[in-house]
Description:
By secondary structure, the protein is mostly helical. The protein has one domain. The protein contains 6 helices and no strands. The longest helix is centred in the first third of the chain and has 41 residues, at about 5-45. The radius of gyration is 21 Å and the shape is flat.
Amino acid sequence: MSTFSISLSSALESCFYVVAFVFLLAMIGAIINFIRFKRLAKERAGLSICQFGRSFDYRRVDTTIIRAAYEGFQEWAGSGAKNFPVMASDDIAKLYGMEDEDLDDFAKKLTQKTGRGWNQLEQNPLYGKVITVRDLVLFVNFQPKTV
C-alpha cells in the first residue's frame, strides 16, 4: 500500500471525526435550546396572542403584522415549545438567537406575508434599530403597503 493511500485514509478519518464532533455540538445546542424555550414557556403560562396584541395600538399598527410576527416567532421558537408565548419586549438576538442575516430574512418574509414593501428601508425610522419584537412589528408597519 502506498503512503498516499494511507495519508488519504487518515485524512478522511480525521475529517469524519471533525464532522461528527460538529454534529454532536449542534445536537447539544439544539437540546439546550429546546429545554430553554420549554422552561420559558412554562414561566409564561397563560400568555397568548391576546396579551401580545394588546401591547400595540391596533388603531395605528396593522393587526395582520401583529399576528404574523407572533406566529413567526412562535414558529422560530417551535423547536422548544409548542405555541410559545411571544412577548413584544422579547430581545430578538438574545432570546431567539437571530443573527443579523436571520433577522433580515425573517423581516423580509414578514413584509411579504403582510403586503408590505421591502424597499426604501433606509427611510424607515427604525432602520438599524430593531432589537425587540415590538421594534420589528413597528418597523414592518412603517414599510409602505404594496399594491
